[in-house]
Amino acid sequence: MASENNNDKLQEKAEKILDNQITHTKEQSIDNNELIHDLRVHQIELEIQNEELRESQLKLEDSKRKYFDLYNFAPDGYFTIDKGGIILEVNLAGASLLGVGRRDLCKTAFIRYIVREYLNQFHQYPLKVEESANNKQTLEIKFLRQDKSSFYAHLEAISIHNNGSFKEFRIALTDITELKNTEKALEYSEERYRDIFINNPAVMLLVDISNGNIIDANPAAIKFYGYSLDEILRMKIGDINVSDDDLNEMRMVSSRQKNRLILKHRLSNGKIRNVDVQSGFIGQEDENVLFSIIHDITFQKKAEDALIDRNAQISEMLDIERHDHESTETLLE
Fold it and tell me: What would the mean pLDDT of 229-242 be, rounded to a whole number?
């Protein structure tokens, strides 16, 4: 009986030990599974991070390529120069504008390629750029190519600072030779206009033929008609022309059937003057602007009329004498 009790106690103890071992094994298994899960999650996170890094690297490389293309193949010249005016970097367009290879340009003085008479103008430019921080400063000067030919250029520059200290200048250079040539041609055209229109002693008017508005008058016209420039520019050509016949004549000019008219124009004091008007269309896109040169022929017209009257009188007297002579001969017969 005592032996059976001992066996029961031993079995019970053994079962407890087994249960403890099973529980411990399960806990270890759970811990191991959680650890494996955490490791797998961390591995996936690393893979995602690596993928994002690769994408960022690709984007950075693509951005660098785009910057390289924009910088090197831009139509304008880009220069990076130090405080001493030495060229540190230049793009293809900049080298092409100066006619010098990029390698030969680097480490050379920027002012070396500026036409001598523009050096003083450029002298204060870097100082203004540096003082203006990141604000652009512009300048128009003339540059000299390696082949000794020259060109006008528009400069835009900013200063680059690092931790508050000056680092370098960045300059954009644009060839504006064609623009300058156009400006010179325009200036020449304006000078010719002043000589031909403003300074000419002949009376001249510009008329918009579509509505009859006087759009310009030279000083000789102001003096002749007796109106101020403001007054005459508020008038129509019909305010000066006297009769409907004159307007009909103007319509013939507008239809290009005539370019010379004999008209009557009214002055500001009410007097009527006989005028010889020679007109033509000037080079306007709408072809509505008529350029008229006006000559006062009042005295000439009076002289012609007097001559006509005198010739008529002489003709009448000759007719009377002829009639009297014929009558006398008839009586004698």
Answer: 92
What does the buried/exposed string (b/e) look like for 15-32 if buried means 16 or more CB atoms within 10 Å of the residue's CB?
A: eeeeeeeeeeeeeeeeee
14-62: pLDDT as tens digits: 666 656 656 655 555 666 667 777 777 777 777 777 877 777 777 766 6
Q: Whole-model pTM?
A: 0.51
How many Å apart are CA 320 and CA 27, to the nearest integer?
Answer: 158
**Helix, strand and coil percent figures for the chain, each rounded to 5:** 55, 25, 20
- Angle, alpha carbons 153-158-164 (nearest 5°): 160
* Backbone region of residue 149 per phi and psi (left: phi > 0; alpha: psi in -120 to 50; beta: other values): beta
Domain 77-181: CATH superfamily is: PAS domain (3.30.450.20)
Say how many C-beta atoms besides its own lie within 10 A of residue 145's C-beta. Answer: 14
Strand 77-81 with 165-175, pairing: antiparallel
Kindly list the distances between the CA atom of residue 132 and the CA atoms of 54, 137, 289, in Å, as whole numbers in the listed order: 40, 8, 48
**H or E segment to which residue 150 belongs:** strand 150-162
Closest CA to 273 of 200, 307, 229, 223: 223
Give domain 202-296's CATH superfamily: PAS domain (3.30.450.20)
Cβ neighbour number for residue 284 with a 10 Å cutoff:
12
